[in-house]
Every structure is written in C-alpha cells, then in structure tokens.
Amino acid sequence: MPTARPRYQITETAVVERALDVAARRWPGEPRSKLLVRLVQAGGASLEREDIDAAGHRREAIRATRGKYDDVFGPAYLDELRRDWPR
C-alpha cells in the first residue's frame, strides 16, 4: 500500500519470534504483521506507564524530604556558596 510514512523492516530473530509467539497467544488469529503492531503499541503503553510511575516516585520522594533539612542550610547559604563562583 503506498504511503509517505516511514516503513521499517524487522527480521524475525529468535527474540522477535518469541515475542510474536507470546503475542499470538494474547491475540489469537492475528497475522504476525498485525501482532508486530500490537507489540509496538503494548510496548509503548508500558513505557509510558513506567515514565508516569517514575515521575510519581520522584514527586513522592520530594514530598517526603520537603523541609527536612531546613535547619542545615541557613537563609544566606546560596549567597555564600555563590561568592566563590567566577563572574
């Protein structure tokens, strides 16, 4: 089918074959070409969820430590730190 979109060629290596076999059990009756598309979609969704989870963990760590070290750094801490910086 003609398209202006990029196309990709994938060799069915052992790793790809294994992934396609797993996908065929999940989505029986689909041709392997469509299973590739489903695997890409599922992989992309999984990575997005991981990114969202990681961001949530970072936010939670920030919340857990917020204000915890207020007594360590005085109000002029940054000014004192920057005094030695080149200008």
* H/E series: HHH
Give the overall shape, derived from the CA principal axes: elongated
Biggest sheet architecture: none
Low-confidence stretches: none
Number of helices: 3
Count of beta strands: 0
- Average pLDDT: 93
- Fraction in helix: 55-70%
The radius of gyration computed from the alpha-carbon positions, rounded to a whole number of angstroms, is 25 Å
Task: Please report which band the strand proportion falls in: under 5%, 5-15%, 15-25%, 25-35%, 35-45% or over 45%.
Answer: under 5%
How many domains? The number is 1
Distance between the termini: 61 Å
Q: Which structural class fits the helix and strand makeup? A: mainly alpha
Protein architecture, described:
With 87 residues, the protein is mainly alpha-helical. The protein has one domain. The chain is built from 3 helices and no strands. The longest helix has 34 residues.
What features would you highlight for this structure?
87 residues, elongated
In short:
The chain is mostly helical. The chain is built from 3 helices and no strands. The protein is elongated and about 65 Å long.
What's the helix and strand layout?
Elements: H1 14-26, H2 32-65, H3 77-82
